[in-house]
Amino acid sequence: HVQLVESGGGSVQAGGSLRLSCSASELTVSRRCMAWFRQAPGKDLEWVARIGPAGLGKEYAPAVRGRTTIDRDNAKMMVYLQMDVLKPEDSGVYYCKGGPFRGQGTQVTVS
């Protein structure tokens, strides 16, 4: 059972930046496509970005494309989400997901 732990969330003003991190408990995640999702209060879970196992094949949701970069370091079993020019609508709980596994999330609040 792979454990994923997100960190790096917080409260920022609009226009600011955050770098979210996702730490995995097993090296097997290096063979998985990893993704970030988010959920705002009262709204459905929304896909944000994904990255292939080797760090290629990066894709972004239209709402964040151009302001967001997903990256990974397989040796450190880490996945990152750099978010710039944050908007209030980016607020929500951000989750890291790999296969059937998902972390507990980290809160992002943009005001």
Helix content: under 10%
Can you count the beta strands?
11
Q: DSSP helix count?
A: 0
Instruction: Round the Cα radius of gyration to an integer and report it.
Output: 13 Å
Order of helices and strands: EEEEEEEEEEE
User: What summary fits the major beta sheet?
Assistant: 7 strands, mixed
The backbone outline, from C-alpha atoms, is: globular
* Average pLDDT figure: 95
Strand content: over 45%
Strand-pairing-aware structural class: mainly beta
Uncertain parts = none
Structure description:
There is one protein chain. The chain has 111 residues and is mainly beta. It contains no helices and eleven strands. Strands 2, 4, 5, 6, 9, 10 and 11 form a seven-stranded mixed beta sheet that branches. A four-stranded antiparallel beta sheet has the order 1-3-8-7, with no helix packed on it.
